[in-house]
Amino acid sequence: MTSDLFMDHGNPLQIDRVRALDPLLADEPLGRLPELNSRAAVAELTAMLRALTPGLDAVALYSTDECLAVLRDLGMLLGSLKRHDTEPAVVVPEVVPVLQELGRRTGMIPRDTVHHYTTWNPTGERQRTYTGDPQEYVLQESVRMVFPQLRQGLELCDMLSRTDPAEQKFAVVLDELTDLMGAMVESIDMVVKEVSPAFFARDLRPYYENVTVGGETYLGPAAAQVPLWLIDLSVWASDHSRPEYQEFLAHSIPYSLPRWRELYDSWLHSPSIVTRIVAAFGADPAETERSEPHLMESAEALLRLLRVIMVFRGRHLGIARKAYQEDLRLFPVGSGGASVELLKQILDLTRDNANLTRGTADERKAAS
Question: What pTM, to 2 d.p., does this model score?
C-alpha cells in the first residue's frame, strides 16, 4: 500500500470520483432498498447481496476508488440484513473474503463506515438510503456537511502540534480552527430542527448495528465515527482525559481514514494544546509578558475554540438523552458504542479543560 493512498482518502476530488462510480450496477437494485426494508424482505435482500457480491478476480481489477464504491454499496445490504436480525456473513458467506479484500485494498475496515454512508454516497436520485425517509436524508447531509471542515481542522491541529504557543500565528490558527468547528454546531442545529428523536431511535438506529466479518465484529456507519474526538485528542484529551474516553477513542480509530489514524498515533502520547499553554504560563508572569507577548492571545483563542465545542457537545447530549430514554430506545448505547453517560463525561471534561485554561490565564492577568 502506497503512502499516496494514505493521503488521498477524503480529498474533495477523490470524494467526487467515488460518488460518481457504480461498479456493481447497483443504482437500480439499491433504489428498491427502502421498499424491501419496509417489508423486512430478508429473502430478497439476501438474494440481492449474493447477486451484487463480485468475485475476488473482479476485485483485483478495481481501482481504489472503485473498491470504496463497492464497499459502500455492499454495506447498505449488510446494514439492512442485520436490521432484520440476519447476520449477512451467515446467509451469504462468499461475501466475507470479498469484504476483507476490499478493506485491505482501501486501508480501512472490511465493512462500510460513516464515510461510505455519507461522504462517498451519491446525492440526488442515486443516493443510497435504508428508509427513504426525508429525515434520513437530513441525517446523512448533517454528517456530510462537516467533513470538509473537519478535514481542514485536523490539518490545522497538526500544524499547531509543530507551533510554539507563544508565536503570534498560534492564536491565528486556533481562531481558524474555531471558525471551522462552527460547522459542527450548524449540523447539530439542523438535526434538532428536522429529525425527531423517535425516528432516529426506532426507525434508523437499528440499521447501524454491528456485523461479523471473518470472526471480527464491526460497528455500523455511525455518526460517532465523525472525528471530533480526534480534535479533542489534540486539544486536551491526550493528557487530560479519563479511561472511559480513552477506550472510546481506541475503539473508534479503526473506523477513521488512514491519514487520521496517523494523526491519532502522533498525538496520543504528545502533550495537548491545553497542557502546552498551561505549561508556558508557569514562567514568571512579568518575564513572560515581556518575552512572550502573544501567549495570552493563544490562551484566549483556545477558550473560544473550547466554547464552540462545548456548544456542540451540549446539544448533542440533549439529542442523545431524548433518543435513548428508556421508553423510546431499542438499544442501550449509541451506534458508535458511546453511552449517554460517556457523552456527559466528555462535555464535563471539555468544560474542565476550559476552566483550567481560563484559570491559568486569569492568574497571569492578576500577576501582570
Answer: 0.90
